[in-house]
Amino acid sequence: MNKEDSKTVKSLLSSPHKIVIIPHKNPDGDAIGSTLGLMHYLKNKGQQAVVIAPNDFPKFLKWMPGQEEIIIFENDKEVAEKYITEASIIFTLDFNHLSRVGFMQETLEAAEGTFIMIDHHQAPSDYAKVTYSDVHMSSTCEMVYNFIEAIEQDTSKITSKIANCLYTGIMTDTGSFKYSSTTSRTHRVVADLIDKGAENMAIHNKVFDTNSPSRLHILGCALKNMVILEDYHTAYITLSQEELDENEFKKGDTEGIVNYGLTLDNIIFAVIFIENKDEGIIKISFRSQGNFSVNEFARAHFEGGGHDNAAGGKSNVSLEETTAKFVALLDSYKDQLKG
Questions:
Q1: Are residues 175 and 299 in the same domain?
Q2: Domain that includes residue 120, residue range
């Protein structure tokens, strides 16, 4: 975060404000961790701060300090809209375009508060007065750590509640510190968070070792459906709405399943296609290893984007048509997929 932006934010926060903090739709560990971490920090500074999420988040994140205070827009629209309308400062975290909040977009576009963006995805839009964007960061949670450090000139204001929230987001967005975005700086940040009270072993347990039977059944179904295309060093998984319903799908049950494709030898491109009949789309997650940019692939063909090695997208045709389109595209990327 540059000095000019730090100065601007510090000046804004020097007086009391009504502040709302917004994550993206279908918030993950980084989105919830960063928004809650920032909420605790702002409250400790005497600000009125509330997190408003577009929709609900996975059960494995519902232990996090302050999570019970999160307002879910789709459940409490009138209350949420009142907070947003009255807010003088609006933080948007872990996304860089207002379309990423889904049905909240219109409300945010009409808001008169000062917007501050903290995000690490590519190609940020220009709606915010202050944009702290860095695509090289491991996570938005690491950026919130840097944000606090820049405002305070040290990290002494990071409490155990903040530390637990930020650790969770860094851990989940780095694949437990194995992705290339994990730098030596990331490890130094994590070490400081542990020193400040982040219960790292307990966090790993709560996030990864509290599976429901439905999640494991869905995982089994997904792995059974996996298709391996050796010529393209690619593996993809499909999950139909019928399969999700049969296995009593709950939000968060498909989180991380796409990564199993990359555990196969000689696979550098992994994809999962998940049918969502309520929204009339096929939700797609892309992962890669090495130099193959799934961000560019998703932007070019599936109305998506994200990071070079992790991105999302969608399709408005059937599951069968979507996978057929995907497979047909691979031949033009064969040279890039050699590894």
A1: no
A2: 3-208
The reply to whether 283 and 309 lie within a common domain is: yes
Here the CATH number for the domain that contains residue 60 is 3.90.1640.10
Tell me: do 231 and 203 sit in the same domain.
Answer: no
DSSP state of 246: H
Helix, strand, or coil (residue 322): helix
Average pLDDT, the chain: 96
Looking at the predicted structure, is the pLDDT value of residue 145 above 90? Answer: yes
Whether residue 178 is found in the same domain as residue 29: yes
Alpha-carbon torsion 200, 257, 139, 339, what sign?
A: positive
Q: Are residues 233 and 154 in the same domain?
A: no
Provide the pLDDT confidence category of residue 307 given band limits of 50, 70 and 90. Answer: confident
Q: How far apart are CA 316 and CA 283, in angstroms?
A: 9
In the three-class reduction of DSSP (H, G, I as helix; E, B as strand; rest coil), residue 335 is classed as coil
Buried b / exposed e across 132-164, counting CB within 10 Å, b at 16+?
Answer: bbbeebbbbbbbbbbbbbbbeeebeebbebbbb
Integer Cα distance of 67 and 51 in angstroms: 9
Rounded CA-CA distance 106/117 in Å is: 17
| 22 & 164 share domain | yes
Residue 220 CB neighbours (<10 A): 11
Alpha helices in the chain (DSSP H): 3-12, 29-44, 77-86, 105-110, 140-152, 160-173, 184-195, 200-208, 213-225, 241-246, 294-301, 319-330
Give the 3-state secondary structure of residue 130.
strand
SS3 325: helix
CA distances (Å), 329 to each of 9, 83, 228, in order? 45, 45, 15
Q: What is the value of pTM for the model shown?
A: 0.91
- Beta strand 269-276 with 234-239: parallel, antiparallel or unpaired? parallel
Q: Tell me the C-alpha distance between 28 and 63, whole Å.
A: 14
Other C-beta atoms within 10 Å of 170: how many?
32
38/136 same-domain check: yes
